Amino acid sequence: MSSSRRVAWLLFAVAWGANHFVPLLLEYRAHLALSSVELAILFGVYAVGLVPGLLLGGPLSDRRGRRAVVLPASVVALAGTCLLAGGQVGFGVLLAGRFVVGLGAGATFTAGTAWLQDLAGGEAAGTGPRRAAVALSSGFGGGPLLTGVLAQWLPWPMQLPYAVHAAVLVATIVAVVLAPRSEPAGDAPHRSPTAATNPSRAGREASQGRRRLPSGFATVAVVAPWVFVLPSVSSAVLPGLVRAKLGAFAVVFAGLVTGSTLLSGVLVQPVLRAWRPPSANTFGLSMGVVGLLCAALAAKTGSPFAVLVAALLLGAGYGGCLIAGLRFIETRGSPETRGRLTGIFYALTYVGFAWPLALAAIARRIGDVPSLLVTWTLCVLVLAWSACSNHKTSKERETGRRGAESAGQ
């Protein structure tokens, strides 16, 4: 197995561990008598560890090498899983475990994604971003699904899911450690060729490069939250709209909606991997616009079928926006800054997880349908702004190209 695929499997395993805690919340509530506030704290403390991991892991991997960050960070995530396996002891152990998982996962996601892009340098355009996007999406979706099955029908529901995940994560860590060194191994820091001939100048250039963001990153920053706005609306909001019609099948249907959303996001990524980032952004936001309109229709009619259609569309939007951001980093970033840019991008995407809470507050005042139409309006505005910004950037590049050709003549 190639180094690139081994790193992708490691990303999958860490993403699995980041998300599979959620189906067990009901178990903890029943066996540990936790309040809804304590459950919300457990859900949110993951982000307290995740954000520093995202913002620090990428830049550190630019300076120290990808392997030097990915392997220790994945071991930290493994330690978090082991802590959670002892969660029956009480709330404090669960709290520590969730924080440690977030810290390890954040650093692994940023440095690992940058490493995949480094490893795919000689392959077809978009291969690195596609592998990262598919690995993360599969882990985020597959982890909760498998954990739900294990906890529902097998013994030791609060220990077995973590034991299975720990075994998989150990295997993937070992596979990366044993990766063939004939391929780029991510051991060395990334330095420009100038470093060999003029270290002081190289240091100044590297410092300036780390401070500057590539032209066009503002568009990426504005679109980034929609990477998780779209699937979080699908998973956290839509199933509740038709719960009364489903009766005993409401929980299964909620799992089906979440799985359909992430599966749709995975399926579009191989198609979009060679697209230019502006085109992938336009696709993702357009799918989001149509999906949110379908979600509003589902809220109006209470149709489970409309919810499933909306989930597929919102998942495709998620996949488009995610790969657009990663493709931008691949094409406009450099090996010296790729980890930092990936960390900033991922941190911005996680802002989208807050939208269901805001949506719930809006819905209390104006209702489900109008609140979804508010989200639809915002998505339309972001799509229009993104299209105008991309058109302006294209015209400026064309003008610059013609000017360079004229000067050459």
Keywords:
Growth Hormone, Chain: A; 409 residues; 2 domains; mainly alpha
Characterization of the model:
- The structure is a single chain.
- The chain has 19 helices and no strands.
- 49% of the residues are buried.
- The protein has two domains: 181 residues, MFS general substrate transporter like domains (Growth Hormone, Chain: A); 188 residues, Growth Hormone, Chain: A.
- Helix 3 packs parallel to helix 5, helix 6 runs antiparallel to helix 7 and helix 16 packs antiparallel against helix 17.
- With 409 residues, it is mostly helical.
Q: Remind me, CATH topology of the largest domain?
A: Growth Hormone, Chain: A
Mean pLDDT: 81
**Number of discrete helical segments:** 19
Order of helices and strands: HHHHHHHHHHHHHHHHHHH
Class by helix and strand content?
mainly alpha
Count of distinct structural domains = 2
Shape: globular
Strand content: under 5%
So, the CATH homologous superfamily of the largest domain? MFS general substrate transporter like domains
Helix content: over 70%
> Ranges with pLDDT <50 over ≥5 residues?
192-210
Task: Give the number of DSSP strands.
Answer: 0
Instruction: Just give the CATH class of the largest domain.
Output: Mainly Alpha
Q: Main sheet?
A: none
Radius of gyration: 22 Å
* Distance between the amino and carboxyl termini: 51 Å
Topology record:
Elements lengths: L2 H17 L5 H8 L3 H29 L1 H20 L5 H29 L7 H27 L6 H18 L16 H4 L1 H13 L5 H7 L2 H11 L1 H4 L1 H4 L3 H23 L4 H25 L2 H29 L5 H12 L5 H12 L1 H41 L1
Helix pairs in contact: 1-4, 1-5, 1-6, 1-7, 3-4, 3-5, 3-17, 4-5, 4-7, 5-6, 5-17, 6-7, 6-14, 6-16, 11-16, 14-16, 15-16, 15-19, 16-17, 18-19
